[in-house]
Every structure is written in structure tokens, then in C-alpha cells.
Amino acid sequence: MPFTYAILHEGDKGFGISFPDFPGCVSGGQTEEDAIRRGEETLNFHVAGMVEDGDQLPFVRTLSELRSDPLFADSLGDGFLTIVLFDLPGKSVRINVSMDENLLDAIDRAAQAKGQSRSAYLADAARARIRSAA
Predict the structure, then answer these.
(1) What residue segments make up the domains of the chain, in order of their start?
(2) Cα separations (Å) of 36 from 42, 50, 83, 121?
(3) How many CA atoms lie within 13 A of 79 on its CB side?
(4) Cβ(85)–Cβ(131) under 8 Å?
(5) What's the CATH number for 1-90?
(6) How confident is the model at residue 134 (pLDDT cuts 50, 70, 90)?
(7) Where is the HicB-like antitoxin of toxin-antitoxin system domain (predicted)?
(8) Which letter does DSSP use for residue 22 in this model?
(9) How confident is the model over 42-63, as pLDDT tens digits?
(10) 37 with 50: CB under 8 angstroms?
(11) How many CB atoms lie within 10 A of CB 74?
(12) Which residues contact 50 (CB under 8 A, 6 or more apart)?
């Protein structure tokens, strides 16, 4: 899974997070952990949108490349760096799986409650499980 560097800043009402290699992609949260989690979600949404629109993804710089950029030093200010993982969306592939019918019904109800398709709900659940195992 690829990663990029993010800058975490403390503000008056919480924390903000920005991504030097993804200009305009920003988020925030009440705590550092919340800002990082929301930042990851925002970055994944941003990258998926770029891929869907056919936009070229930016080159993700190394830490030494970032440090040599004077604009990075200005944007870092009193913030601190963290690493955020993101997904590179791929082509959807149709699969055939078998599972208990009651579990499938529960999945469908949960997906509907979130306004998602069964496939999107299962993919999100799998991503969450994979991230928690890492």
C-alpha cells in the first residue's frame, strides 16, 4: 500500500491535516488521531476521484526531497509530519463467493443503511480489516 507524508497542525478547535504532494487535499479532527483518520479517508476519496477523472497522480516525494523544498518548510511551520497510507484504485473484478444467507441479508441491510451497494460495503469492510491487521 503506498503512503505519502502529511502535515498535522494544531488549531484553536482541533487539528488540521494537509498533504504537500496533493495540494488542496485537507481535512481535520478534534484529536490528532481523528485528524489522521479523517485525513486518510479524505486522501483516499481524493485519489479515487483523480483516477476516475483520468487525472495523473502527483509524484510522491521522499522525505529528503520534501525537506529540500522551501515551500514545504514554510507549510510545515509548527506542525509535524506523519505518514498516511492510501489506496490506488484498480479495475473492478467480478467474483463469486458463498456465505450464509442470514449473513448476506445482514450485509445487505447494513449496506442499504449506509447508502452503499453490497460490493462497496464488502470492499470497505475488507479494507478496514486489512488495515487493522497491519
Answers:
(1) 1-90, 93-134
(2) 10, 21, 9, 22
(3) 24
(4) yes
(5) 3.30.160.250
(6) low
(7) 7-126
(8) S
(9) 999 999 889 888 899 999 999 9
(10) no
(11) 8
(12) 56, 57
